[in-house]
Design brief:
Number of helices: 29
Shape: globular
Number of strands: 21
Radius of gyration: 26 Å
Length: about 775
């Protein structure tokens, strides 16, 4: 096919779409089901209605091929586990008795059943459920969900493309099941898994699928020759099937690199490639590989992970080059739109000019359709849209929001001395122990306590003007008093104020810093029914006034025990925002770090002996390619030290990370130079303690002993067992006792019981009597 005919055939499509609905209907229905207030039938009907709405809106935007199977009640990787029949042994009876309840038991656990481990989906803030596999794992096709959703879309008159996690990515994301040797390689199960994929493909073809998309984002990471050979074999076998739809293999988040020729040569029918950010290198790599003659290319030229409007003319230039490299070129965002909010037009509180800089999922679908139309009909068909796009891009570039000379001057004046504490850790540790006087195995929490319905109501009432600031403050003070009193009674050693005044650990600070914009409806799924509203980091950052000291002073005045000052670190402030793309992230991180440095100093001046600066996103934001990691880790760790290095030796700096693979960043964790680090460890069975010990980590560590993303209440015995595993790697003088993460999503009943177990475990191992 010529470039001209390829352009004439161009269609618009997307890889996936937000699941929650405009008013988070899915979240409400699922949580109602968990409470017993919503039946399974009502939940499933709500899900079906949301899928119908999503497809309709995509079609109305001009998207001609819609995804199916991307919609999930909890997580698409968990859906794949169900589709291939890889149910862990401990969950099989629950799934057999009630598939829906068993599904949620795998995701969340029950009092009797531990859930699957949860970790980050590549370098995003989306969390997936990790498959548990072993030498005895058997697979069996369960096509009910993918076939059912395909049938729904066909019945509604859409052109659907089912989407499944590909077999290579599925196995590379998996971990050895409990009791299986740690060195077991799930990829060795490929020959057992491929026939199940073949059966799923045949079922989808029989149900009417013309194309099926198999997502293989794991192939954008550094892969060994054996792993690349496994990918070649997998797609050689799947491509050779006669009873199958056409196969589109998709990658995103980075360049395919050495995996690109592997897939280009495979007997598949098309590739979906990301051409944004670091993945822009796919363009040259594709040309060097000889293109995709006779095949379909789905070109991801619109950033599916950020919320800025697309440069339409730049994308058209990229697409013009791509037209000569494939038999057919279709237009798409770079990845699933799961990672962005639903609709920017809902943000009616933003300045209308600023709102025109933003593109959420619905706007990105429209941009995708515009580009496809321009390829089919010529740029004259969208000349008005191109002119408006040029004006909006120029408006953003010239806005005074984006540049503050004072901020830039302060950032330019930063020196190496500003990023290092003058005292080495051993001297600091001695001064901190003298000041704090803590016992062995000191107990603490990560920061937040339950955000009750009453707290959310009070915040909503303040926003709506139903109560004034004084009444709101009284409500927050009452909550702080309750939190402090409970911690004292439970016997915790280092307390927190519970953060009742905070809507979100990033948004709370963003609303008090210049350069940030807040949304009202910009919800994005983090995991399950947990949705966050990432703020928009649009311009230069500064701190006009202290942000946390008033609440620290109030809480510390209620107790003689140390209360932690609680802040969110600079990397996480970037990672969990929609960050500006008009300057290097290192520059933006340095601006945020300087604002936080002022806050840390103010907390110390207010009497804080312990200040925690959380960086849960440090590992999450690690580049997928190892060649890019050193530069990232250099500015990431520098920004943390810049925020925390302006304090005295006897002020203890804590940090916190959770739900990530920490083994890749052990040296960077050391480079943070924090005095204490708390980490998720309960679901991963204290793996991180062994990793830190193996790396010779010299500072204090709090590996979590309570999995707070499950409703299970751990017993004292469970916490003791986990602590003993931690003590096998880290001496008691450097081991803290804490939950995996903050308690915002938990209820008070389970919080009280779980923290009592935690404190009881610490006391038992100290040899103290239980209270």
């Amino acid at each position: 096919m010529t470039a001209k005919s390829a352009a004439a055939a161009t269609r618009a499509t997307v890889h996936g779409y937000p699941r929650q609905g405009g008013n988070r209907e899915l979240k409400k229905a699922i949580e109602g089901y968990w409470r017993g207030a919503v039946t399974a039938d009502v939940l499933l009907a709500t899900a079906a209605a949301l899928r119908r709405e999503n497809w309709s809106r995509l079609a109305d935007s001009g998207v001609q091929e819609v995804p199916t199977g991307d919609f999930s009640l909890y997580d698409h990787v968990l859906d794949t586990t169900v589709a291939v029949g890889a149910i862990p042994a401990r969950h099989r009876a629950a799934v057999a008795a009630d598939p829906l309840a068993g599904y949620f038991a795998m995701a969340r656990g029950t009092q009797e059943l531990a859930p699957l481990e949860m970790t980050k989906w590549f370098d995003t803030n989306y969390h997936y459920l990790v498959p548990e596999l072993g030498p005895d794992t058997g697979f069996a096709a369960n096509p009910a969900k993918p076939v059912g959703e395909l049938a729904q879309a066909l019945a509604l008159g859409h052109t659907p493309r089912p989407v499944l996690v590909g077999p290579i990515t599925y196995l590379l994301l998996a971990k050895p099941a409990p009791g299986v040797a740690a060195d077991f390689q799930p990829l060795t199960l490929l020959d057992r898994l491929l026939p199940v994929y073949a059966e799923l493909l045949a079922d989808l073809r029989a149900a009417g699928a013309q194309w099926v998309q198999l997502d293989e984002p794991a192939l954008v990471q550094d892969r060994t020759p054996a792993e690349l050979n496994a990918a070649a074999r997998a797609y050689r076998e799947l491509g050779a099937l006669t009873d199958r739809p056409k196969l589109l293999v998709a990658s995103y988040f980075d360049r395919l690199g050495e995996a690109l020729p592997v897939l280009a040569k495979a007997p598949i029918d098309g590739l979906a490639l990301d051409f944004t950010g670091p993945a822009a290198a796919n363009l040259d790599d594709l040309a060097a590989a000889g293109g995709l003659p006779g095949k379909r290319l789905v070109a991801g030229v619109i950033d599916g992970r950020n919320i800025w409007i697309n440069d339409l003319e730049k994308s058209l230039a990229t697409l013009a080059t791509l037209l000569g490299l494939a038999d057919r070129v279709d237009v798409a965002p770079s990845c699933s739109l799961l990672h962005v909010p639903l609709d920017a037009t809902a943000e009616r509180d933003l300045d209308p000019q600023i709102a025109r800089w933003l593109a959420f999922a619905r706007q990105k679908a429209r941009e995708t359709a515009l580009l496809a139309r321009a390829l089919r009909e010529g740029t004259g068909a969208i000349s008005a849209e191109l002119a408006a796009n040029r004006a909006d891009l120029a408006s953003r570039a010239g806005s005074p929001i984006t540049r503050d000379p004072a901020v830039r001057a302060r950032t330019a004046a930063v020196t190496e001395a500003d990023t290092r504490r003058p005292q080495a850790y051993p001297q600091r540790a001695e001064a901190q122990r003298a000041r704090l006087g803590l016992p062995l195995l000191p107990t603490t929490t990560i920061g937040s306590f339950p955000q009750t319905a009453e707290l959310r109501t009070a915040r909503a009432d303040l926003t709506a003007g139903r109560i004034d600031a004084a009444a709101y403050r009284e409500r927050i003070e009452a909550e702080v008093r309750e939190v402090i009193a409970f911690q004292e009674k439970a016997g915790l050693d280092v307390l927190v104020h519970g953060e009742p005044e905070r809507n979100d650990m990033v948004q709370y600070f963003a609303e008090q810093l210049t350069g940030y914009l807040a949304t009202r409806h910009g919800w994005v799924q983090s995991y399950g029914t947990r949705y966050v509203r990432p703020p928009v980091l649009a311009g230069d950052i500064s701190r006009p006034h202290p942000m946390t000291t008033q609440w620290f002073r109030y809480a510390q005045g209620l107790t003689d025990r140390p209360v932690k000052g609680m802040l969110t670190g600079p990397v996480t402030m970037l990672a969990w925002s929609f960050v500006r793309d008009d300057q290097p992230p290192a520059d933006t991180a340095r601006q945020v770090a300087l604002a936080l440095r002022d806050e840390v100093r103010d907390l110390e001046a207010a009497g804080a002996a312990v200040v925690q600066v959380d960086e849960p996103a440090l590992r999450e934001t690690l580049p997928l390619r190892s060649a890019d990691r050193a530069a990232y880790l250099a500015w990431a760790t520098e920004s943390f030290r810049l925020a925390t290095s302006g304090v005295r030796a006897d002020t203890q700096i804590h940090t916190h990370m959770c739900y990530a693979e920490f083994g890749d960043i052990l040296r960077a964790i050391d480079e943070l130079d924090a005095d204490v680090i708390s980490l998720e460890a309960a679901r991963s069975h204290m793996q991180v303690a062994d990793e830190l010990a193996g790396a010779g980590y010299p500072r204090e560590v709090g590996p979590g002993v309570w999995d707070i993303h499950s409703p299970r209440v751990p017993s004292t015995e469970e916490a003791v067992d986990l602590l003993r595993a931690g003590l096998a790697a880290i001496p008691a003088e450097r081991l803290w006792v804490n939950p995996d993460c903050g308690l915002k999503t938990r209820g008070w009943t389970e919080t009280r019981a779980s923290l009592e177990s935690l404190v009881g475990a610490a006391r038992r191992l100290r040899g103290e009597p239980a209270h």
